Each structure stands twice: as C-alpha cells, then as structure tokens.
Fold this sequence. Notes:
Elements: E1 6-10, H1 20-28, E2 34-38, H2 39-42, H3 50-59, E3 62-68, H4 76-85, E4 103-109, H5 127-130, H6 132-141, E5 144-145, E6 149-151, H7 159-174
Parallel strand pairs: 1-2, 1-3, 3-4, 4-5, 4-6
Helix pairs in contact: 1-7
Bound molecules: flavin mononucleotide.
Residues 12, 18-21, 68-72, 109-112, 154-155 line the site of flavin mononucleotide (FMN).
Amino acid sequence: MSTPRTLVVVAHPDLAASRVTAHLAQSIRDLEHVTVHDIAAAYPDSRIDTTHEQRLLREHDVIVWQFPWHWYSVPGVLKTWMDKVLTHGFAYGTGGTALHGKTLQLVTSTGGPEGSYATDGFNRFTIDELLAPVHATAHLTGMHLGEPVVLYSARTVSDEDLALHAKRYRALLAA
Ligand SMILES: Cc1cc2nc3c(=O)[nH]c(=O)nc-3n(C[C@H](O)[C@H](O)[C@H](O)COP(=O)(O)O)c2cc1C
C-alpha cells in the first residue's frame, strides 16, 4: 500500500505569535508525503479560494486540522474555512462524496490542564463532548475521525515536553 498523502490544515489566527502550533507545524514540514497549509497566512483577508481548497482536499487521503483550542472549539479561521470549503455537492448532499473514506485527524492544544476537562472539572465537559460538532461533521461528510491528539496545559508546557509531543506527532504522520 502506498503512503497516504496528508494535508495539514494549520489554523492559527497568527502563527508568528504562536509557540505550540508553530512548533508542531515546523516539526512535520519536511515529511515528504505531507502538505502543510497555513490558512491564515494564505487568506489574510479571509477570502478563501474554495476551488483551490477543495482540490487540495481531493488530492489527499488524510486531513489534519491542527489548531489551538479557542473558546472550547476550533478558532474562527478554521470555522470560516469549513463554512467556505465543505460545501453542498462537495462534502455532503447530492453528489457530495469528495471526502468519503478519508481520515480526519485533529491536533490541538489547550490552555487548561487535562483534569479540567471532565464533568466534575473546571471546564465541566470532556474534550470529546465539546467536539460533538466535529464528530457530526465527520459523519455527515463520510470521514473517519481519528483519536484527537491533545496537548494540555499548552501555556506552561516545558520546551522538553513540547519537543517530545512534537516527536510523537511527527511519528504519527510518518506512520
Ligand atoms: C482567543 C483564545 C481563546 C482560548 N480559549 C481557550 C479555551 O476555551 N480553553 C482552553 O483550555 N484554552 C483556551 N485558550 C488557550 C489556548 O488554547 C492556548 O494558549 C494555545 O493552545 C497555545 O497554542 P499556541 O502557542 O499555538 O497559540 C485560548 C486562547 C485564546 C488566545
């Protein structure tokens, strides 16, 4: 079987100001079968080229959404991308089968510690519960949703632990 082609949609509002997302994106940039696509840089005016994005999606087997956790969800830049790219007739509805059988992999980081994402924790809900809209999106679009890769306590993570996490992320994409 050939190596799956992987599209990493990096969705940070300002990658230049990022520590974690930027480090993770840098750690996989040289992988041969991986395309790293910084959507905030590609579309600083938010005018997303739907045709180009849909072509990229068609050309890849694994789609990674790599983003910082913002307000218990994906950042606005990724939500805008979803609104413009996952259109009727492409991603769902009549003839909308372009994403069927692909894998959707989430890679995110949270400010809150792991223990805060629990029913009795500070944030009241688990990450998986908060990801219900993404589960529904994957189902509607016929994609298989992989187990999310989450780095908790991202604001205070040590350089060593961040490097270790990046190594694991790279190994996942290289597999
Ligand atoms: C606008 C905004 C909203 C955020 N919302 C959350 C949140 O809901 N839950 C949480 O745990 N962390 C939240 N954070 C913290 C970020 O998830 C954290 O700083 C980020 O993962 C670090 O990655 P970066 O260095 O790539 O920016 C938020 C940060 C910002 C700037």
